[in-house]
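Help wanted!
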Amino acid sequence: MPVVYDLTSDTATQPTDDMFDLMKTASRGDDVFSQDESVHELEKYMADLLGHEAALFGTSGTMTNQLGLRCWLLHPPQSVLCDSRAHVHVYECGGIAYHSQAAVTPVVASNGLYLTKEDVEAHISTDTLCGAPTKVISLENTLNGTIMPIEEIARISKLARSRGIKMHLDGARLFEASQATGVSMKEYGQHFDSVSVCLSKGAGAPIGSILISDTTTIQHSRHLRKLMGGGWRQAGPLAKVALHCIQTIVPTMPQTHKLTRRLADGLTDLGFRLLIPCHTNMLFMDFKPLPSVAVLAEPLLAQGIKISSTPGATICRIVLHYQVTAEAVDCFLRVATDIAGKYKIVPALGDEDSAICSRSSSVASSVTDLSAAYPSVQ
Ligand SMILES: Cc1ncc(COP(=O)(O)O)c(C=O)c1O
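Answered by r_m:
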């Protein structure tokens, strides 16, 4: 059975025929020389959306994160303070050390979910003799699909500004947070000096990510993008599609969040456990007492539904996006019900309370190790 629904990541969305048609209408200028209208249109739209002066369209979230951070890390020795699970620290090939010659201070979120001002304050380095002073605080929202409260972002940002520290946001999935909370992109944007937003995740664009900041920083990032080999020529068709996706797919995210919640509730009702709260389009499930995720992944694949399955692991990240339908979720739950029956699984506490508890807790007690839940390629 071919894969019809790929739930391994929201990067798995497939470009549609409409998108290819739209590409034909794009301008065909050279973006290395900043001469493409469709790219300009996208960059201006995103700069306005976040309430900043300028933006740079780039190939990937890794590139726009690293460019943003590099722009602030001009005088080594310095450091970046971030969540211990942050993508910029764990999944960007050590890019902060490589591109910026900076150290990383990974901080464990004391509430198990998101960094607080107190977590950050306790780890800021001001040691200009033997340390690497904190130059940037880099936050991530959403992180593992969970939303960082705007109030906490504001507290951290106020602290950073009072200490002359730059604020960067890995907003790979900021659209998800904004759509789920109703907090505008602009309101998030005001707390940061630079923001990276991915267009090829839940927004559904085939390629691209964007860095938003002030005009001088964006000019610098354009120069650094060329240095990294990321100067792309006729990028207009990609920009045209990306803008279309922002305007048409992003508003559908609340439906995806509802479906994700339905899947979470269905799976917890069967006796499987949510490892962290489900706020947006991601689920981290523990399928114990099944012997491994594979026991479920195989029959799902036979129905055209693909989930990640690390050999021997019982935990799994499941990600929904706009191309996952209600029928796919129903089918997933039918297969899971069948497997739960075969393995005689019952809800952990045997009553509704257990499911409600695991569904609604907003704060985890400690940071859960979710590494085995990720696909090897995200
Ligand atoms: C939170 C986060 N930031 C950044 C990235 C990097 O994006 P890309 O894969 O486009 O480099 C990812 C990719 O999965 C991500 O999940």
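OP: Thanks! One thing I noticed: Residues 350-363 have pLDDT under 50 and may be disordered.
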